[in-house]
Amino acid sequence: MINFRYHVVSLAAVFLALAIGLVVGTAAANGPLTENLNEQVNTLTDDKQQLRDDLEQSRAELKKNADFATEVAPMLLAGKLANKNVLLVKLDGSDSGDVNTATDGVATMLGTAGSKVVGTVTIKEKFTTPANSAMLLDLAESSAPPSVSGALPNQANGVDTSAALLAAVLFGKSGTPQVEGTRTVLSSYESSGFVGLDGDFKTPAEAVIIVAGAPASGKDAKDRNAAVLTLATRFDLATRVVVAGLSANGLVAAVIGDATVNKSISTVDNAVTAYGQVAAVMALTERLAGKNGHYGSGDGANSLLPKTASVTNGS
Q: Which residues contact 178 (CB under 8 A, 6 or more apart)?
């Protein structure tokens, strides 16, 4: 007769067999599994080191390219913009640090070309915010000198009206006097938080380089990006314009994509680099000679660099 003790012994034997099976199975599989894991770890380590080496090599090549562009800049630019008064405009945004760096580089190249930077205007994000259009209209109306107010566009677009006012006081042909009331206009926009100013602005500029970063983002991005293009277009009506972008996106793409302004505004899509900064100044030389083009390595670029051009005083 099978008793309770028999059942206990049987169950114990079953669990013992399972335990032995698990131990034996784990021991048998442990070797190949461990080897496979070790191989994967070693492969990942090698890949990481390769990526690190590739990154260092890319950084070294970029530095060599920058050094090369800096060294050849005097040969390409010297005297090309002698006695030319140029304004720098930079667009404030999420990548303002890179825009500032690019602007400083362009300013250095302008100096190499012999031009004088009359000042730098920073267009704050507040300027392109749709909700501030009425405020911009009021500011333009209240600060515009009598000699300019009658020529401002009569419409409800605050960005366009204010851009037209700024263009009227900032730009002029070589030898023309500064518009009376220029400092009042600039100070009004600065104190209201729409622009930042750096320079004396005592002389009208004959041309402008606009340094632009990434396109605006967020719920009002479409309107803000359109406002930036409006600003560039209004400046284009008053002077010679080059847009120097950090990439082929944003304002560069907007200009190239506009069938009208892409024939008069030149663009450079790699102004974050030294050779892009050289290209921006070469493009401005070309614009002052009556030509335009789109340069860099992004979509819509005609070539990496413009052909060299000479500009005579008074062009």
A: 169, 172, 201, 202, 203, 204
Per CATH, domain 81-295 is 3.40.50.2300: yes
Mind listing the pLDDT tens digit for each residue in 252-271?
Answer: 999 999 999 999 999 999 99
Q: Are 105 and 178 in contact (CB under 8 A)?
A: no
| Whole-number Å distance between alpha carbons of 246 and 244 | 7
- The 3-state DSSP class for residue 182 equals helix
Amino acid at 113: A
Are 261 and 197 spatial neighbours (Cβ–Cβ below 8 Å)?
A: no
Type of residue found at 56 = E
The answer, as to whether pTM is greater than 0.85, is: no
Contacts of 155 (CB under 8 A, 6+ apart): 161
If one counts every other C-beta atom within 10 angstroms of the C-beta of residue 292, the result is 20
What is residue 178's DSSP assignment?
A: P
What CA–CA distances, in Å, run from 178 to 11, 84, 120, 174, 265? 104, 15, 16, 11, 24
